[in-house]
Each structure stands twice: as structure tokens, then as C-alpha cells.
């Protein structure tokens, strides 16, 4: 397949090398200006609201967003809108309920917020561990997308591509910290918004800018026919729909790499501006990806049998729908640009995730829990860099194991864990005075164990990956069961300990 894209290889290489040179220069500059932990974790609050909004958009608009949602729309039609609408609700929750308390109660990480009321280490340790689980799974999802893309465009083996991504993300994080990561994400966000806008315009142009024609031809070309405009193409029952929606809405609020971005701006006003601006940008991109690119790919790709393998499956899988569409509607030169932008996208997102994971290991576990806050900044930064290398190695191994999985489903696993473990812990620690340390840990543990366990026993892992005959848990998405269980256990355990209240006051 690499010959198919041979004429675009120069554009891919030149665009990506330009991005790489720019971001490595920024990383070198940031490394020279990083003096302590506040510089490394939060850029000393020197990022403006506008810049941080771009960075949040760049952080959130990952390979799963672009490649995965396009692929799911191409495969299933209307049901893919849940991945478009639910995160927007999550942004509203973050804006209305949590920006102010996160700014007041936190310093760098999710654990800072979760443990602000408790003197006991276990709350901080638990919050750090759940953050690590979320970060690591999200890292794997991004690297799976990167490996498939590089394999398709360059003919480089999947394993080698994953190793290259892992090395680069470690360099960005360990050398430049938050300042470098922020500017990598800003550059990537601008490139991605431009690329998606041009791709959507080229797709519309191929239909004479007639949306009704686009949707009519999509229905004629798709195996579901008019069913692409009705629910049921992806989510088989109402319980699955509700469960996935819960994960996407509330899981977003607990994502460690998003929470960290709220501390990079100077004040609460800038934090509000960041989230609002990011939500507008992401909403604009989501509309184009779903309503134009995803549906437009249905008839356009079907017109090119060379894009399909001997079995009739799309070469590269559903994750590569956007890349193939770029070639069909805009030519090899543009597919080279899109390929490089998506590759840059993955690098930017994994850098933010790696920084969040490394900070959980160094700031929360090493400096706060193990050293009781007595570690020097030099020691903490050294551990952060070691942690970044360790995370990179583990992510590479797991990405190779999960080769071929749909990256949107993998991202939904991350959101389910975040909604079941991180979100209950954060919202209760901020707004419920009756929460105790033991209740926080018990509820979070149940949410984490149930979300992971039910996904393992569900159809995707138990049947598709482990090749068992039938799933033990019948639903793909566990949040409907695991998130309420976390709240219930936190309430029950804390209620039994009312005679032993938490160490400090809540926000209210």
C-alpha cells in the first residue's frame, strides 16, 4: 500500500519534519527556561486563556477524535454522534461546576484536588494510581492510531512506528515539560483545524456543495441504507447508549491531562476562557468530522475498489477512513499533509498524557506520598524524567499488544474508568462534606475494579481479543453500572464513619 501513497511521501516527510524541527526547537527553549516544579508542571501559570484554549483543543482532538469518529461514522452512521455530543456536555460540567474549585484546591494534578481534605496518604496514592491507569490506556489508544497511520503511509512496520512515537514523546516531556508540551499542542491544533476544514471543503466540493446529495448518495452506498440516519448501527440497545454517554460526559471531567491544563493560566478568569474557547473549537471540528467527512466518505470510498483488500475490508481498517478520503477528494499531496498532521496530532496528545502520568508518579507518589513533601525540586524533576521514560516503554509494549483495535473504543474504555473512579472522587471531595478518606478510597476502588473488570468480561475483550465464545458481561460499556456503584459505596462507607469526619472542610 505504500506505493499508493508514494507521490505524497515528500509532502508527508517535509510537513512532519517541519513540525518536528519547530517543536524540538521549542522544547530546547523551554528546557532552558524551566527552573523548578511549577515551571515543569504548570509553565508557572504564564499561558494565556486563548493559548490554553488552543492547547486544550489540541490535547482533546486526538487521533481517536479524528480518525476514530470518522471511521465509526463511516461504519455505523448516526450512532457516532454520541462521541460528538457527550464531550460537549462534559465541557459544560467543567465550566459550571469545577473550574473554580479545581483552581482553588489544586496545585498540579488530580490527586492535589482529591486529597485536599484528607491528611491520609492513601487518598493521594489512590488518585495517582487511577490517573496512571487512565493515562496509560489513553496513551496506548493514541499509539495504536499512530502505528497504523505510519504503516499505511510509509510502509514502516507497525512496531517500529510505535517505538518512534514513544521515543519522541519522552523527549518532549522529559526535556521541555509543560511549556514545550503546550506549544506542541497549540501548533498541532492550528494545523489540525486547518486540515479538517480543507478536507471538509474538498468533500463538499465533490458533491457540488449539496448536502442533500451527499446524504442521499451516502444512503445509497452504505450497507445500512437509510438506516445510517437512525439509531442502532453501532449501539445495540438503550442500556449501551446510556452507559457510553455517561462515560463520555463524566469521564471527560476526570481526565488528568485536561485537569492539569487549568493550572497553566494565571487566574480563574483565564481558566474559564480556556475551557470556553476550547469547547467552541472542538465543537466546530466535531461538526465537520461527523456531518461532512464521515458521511461523505461512504459514497466516495466505495467508488475506489483499490482501497479495499481481498476480503472487502478497507485497507488500514476503519481508523484510516479520513486518510483514504483525503486522497480521493483532494489528491496525493493533501493526503500527505493530512497524514503528517495526524501524526503530529498523536505526538502532541501523547506528550500531554505522558506529562500527566509522569507527574502522578513523581509529584503525587514520590514527592508527596513517599517523601512526605520533603523531596527537593531537583529530586522531583529527576524522578519525573525517569517516570516519562518508564511510561514510554510500557506504552510501547501495550500498543503492540493492542494492534488493530478501534481507537475510539479504546478511548471509551479510558472515559469509563475516569467516570467510575476519578469523577466520583473529585466531585464528592469538592461538594460533599460527609465524605471520609476511607469512603473515598472504597468508592473509587469499586468504580475502578468494576469498570476494568466488566470491560475485560465484555464482548470486545473477552470475545474479540481473548477469543472466547461468549461474553460474561453482555455490554461493551460498563459506566452505567460502575459509576453509580462508586458513588453508592463512597456514601455507604462514609456514612458509617460519621463519628470520624474528614480532616478539613469542603468547598461548601
Question: Helix and strand layout, with pairings?
Answer:
Blueprint: H1 9-32, H2 37-42, H3 49-60, H4 63-76, H5 82-105, H6 110-114, H7 121-154, H8 158-206, H9 211-221, H10 238-253, H11 256-261, H12 268-302, H13 321-330, H14 332-370, H15 377-401, H16 407-431, H17 437-457, H18 459-465, H19 479-496
Q: Which shape, going by the Cα principal axes?
A: globular
Q: What is the CATH topology assignment?
A: Sodium/glucose cotransporter
CATH superfamily: Sodium/glucose cotransporter
Mean pLDDT over all positions: 82
Q: Give me the Rg, rounded.
A: 22 Å
Helix-strand string = HHHHHHHHHHHHHHHHHHH
- Structure class: mainly alpha
Provide the CATH top-level class.
Answer: Mainly Alpha
- Which consecutive residue ranges, at least 5 long each, have pLDDT under 50? 1-7
Work out the count of structural domains: 1
Secondary-structure arrangement, i.e. CATH architecture: Up-down Bundle
Report the end-to-end length measured between terminal Cα atoms: 59 Å
Q: Looking at the chains present, what oligomeric state does this protein adopt?
A: single chain
Q: β content, as a range?
A: under 5%
Number of helices: 19
Largest sheet: none
Estimated helix fraction: over 70%
Provide a quick synopsis of the model.
By secondary structure, the protein is an all-alpha fold. 75% of the residues lie in helices and 0% in strands. The chain contains 19 helices and no strands.
Structural description of this entry:
The relative contact order is 0.18. This protein has 508 residues and is mostly helical. Helix content is 75%, strand content 0%. The protein has a single domain (2-496), classed as Sodium/glucose cotransporter, CATH 1.20.1730.
Amino acid at each position: 500500500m505504500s506505493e499508493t501513497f508514494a507521490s505524497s511521501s515528500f509532502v508527508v516527510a517535509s510537513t512532519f519534519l517541519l513540525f518536528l524541527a519547530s517543536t524540538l526547537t521549542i522544547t530546547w527553549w523551554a528546557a532552558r527556561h524551566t527552573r523548578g516544579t511549577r515551571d515543569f508542571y504548570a509553565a508557572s501559570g504564564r499561558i494565556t486563556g486563548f493559548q490554553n484554549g488552543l492547547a486544550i483543543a489540541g490535547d482533546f482532538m486526538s487521533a481517536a477524535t479524528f480518525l476514530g469518529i470518522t471511521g465509526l461514522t463511516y461504519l455505523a452512521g448516526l450512532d457516532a454522534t454520541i462521541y460528538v455530543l457527550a464531550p460537549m456536555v462534559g465541557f459544560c460540567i467543567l465550566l459550571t461546576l469545577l473550574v473554580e474549585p479545581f483552581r482553588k484546591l489544586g496545585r498540579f494534578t488530580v490527586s492535589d484536588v482529591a486529597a485536599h481534605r484528607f491528611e491520609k496518604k492513601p487518598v493521594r496514592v489512590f488518585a495517582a494510581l487511577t490517573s496512571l491507569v487512565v493515562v496509560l490506556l489513553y496513551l496506548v489508544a493514541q499509539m495504536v492510531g499512530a502505528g497504523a497511520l505510519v504503516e499505511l503511509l510509509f510502509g514502516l512496520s507497525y512496531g517500529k512506528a510505535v517505538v518512534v512515537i514513544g521515543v519522541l514523546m519522552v523527549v518532549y516531556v522529559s526535556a521541555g515539560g509543560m511549556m514545550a508540551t503546550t506549544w506542541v499542542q497549540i501548533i498541532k491544533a492550528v494545523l489540525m483545524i486547518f486540515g479538517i476544514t480543507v478536507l471538509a471543503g474538498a468533500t463538499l466540493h465533490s458533491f457540488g456543495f449539496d448536502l442533500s446529495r451527499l446524504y442521499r448518495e451516502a444512503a445509497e452506498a452504505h450497507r445500512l441504507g437509510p438506516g445510517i440516519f437512525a439509531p442502532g448501527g453501532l449501539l445495540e440497545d438503550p442500556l449501551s447508549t446510556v452507559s457510553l454517554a455517561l462515560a463520555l460526559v463524566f469521564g471527560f471531567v476526570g481526565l488528568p491531562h485536561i485537569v492539569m491544563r487549568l493550572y497553566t493560566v494565571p487566574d480563574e478568569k483565564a481558566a474559564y476562557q480556556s475551557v470556553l474557547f476550547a469547547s467552541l473549537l472542538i465543537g466546530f471540528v466535531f461538526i465537520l468530522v461527523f456531518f461532512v467527512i464521515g458521511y461523505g466518505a461512504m459514497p466516495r470510498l466505495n467508488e475506489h475498489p483499490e482501497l479495499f483488500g481481498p476480503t472487502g475490508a478497507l485497507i488500514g481498517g476503519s481508523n484510516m477512513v479520513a486518510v483514504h478520503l483525503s486522497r480521493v477528494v483532494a489528491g496525493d499531496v493533501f493526503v500527505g499533509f493530512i497524514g503528517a498532521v495526524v501524526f503530529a496530532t498523536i505526538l502532541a496528545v501523547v506528550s500531554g498524557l505522558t506529562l500527566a502520568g509522569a507527574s502522578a508518579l513523581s509529584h503525587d507518589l514520590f514527592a508527596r506520598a513517599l517523601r512526605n513533601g520533603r523531596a527537593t525540586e531537583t529530586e522531583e524533576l529527576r524522578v519525573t524524567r525517569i517516570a516519562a521514560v518508564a511510561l514510554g516503554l510500557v506504552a510501547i509494549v501495550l500498543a503492540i499488544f493492542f494492534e488493530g483495535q478501534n481507537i475510539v473504543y479504546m478511548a471509551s474504555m479510558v472515559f469509563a474508568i475516569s467516570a467510575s473512579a476519578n469523577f466520583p472522587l473529585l466531585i464528592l471531595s469538592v461538594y460533599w462534606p460527609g465524605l471520609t478518606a476511607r469512603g473515598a478510597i472504597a468508592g473509587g476502588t469499586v468504580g475502578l475494579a468494576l469498570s476494568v473488570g466488566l470491560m475485560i468480561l465484555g464482548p470486545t475483550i473477552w470475545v474479540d481479543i481473548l477469543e472466547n465464545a461468549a461474553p460474561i458481561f453482555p455490554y461493551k460499556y460498563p459506566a452505567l453500572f460502575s459509576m453509580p456503584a462508586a458513588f453508592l459505596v463512597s456514601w455507604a462507607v462514609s456514612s458509617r464513619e460519621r463519628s470520624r469526619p474528614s480532616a478539613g472542610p469542603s468547598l461548601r
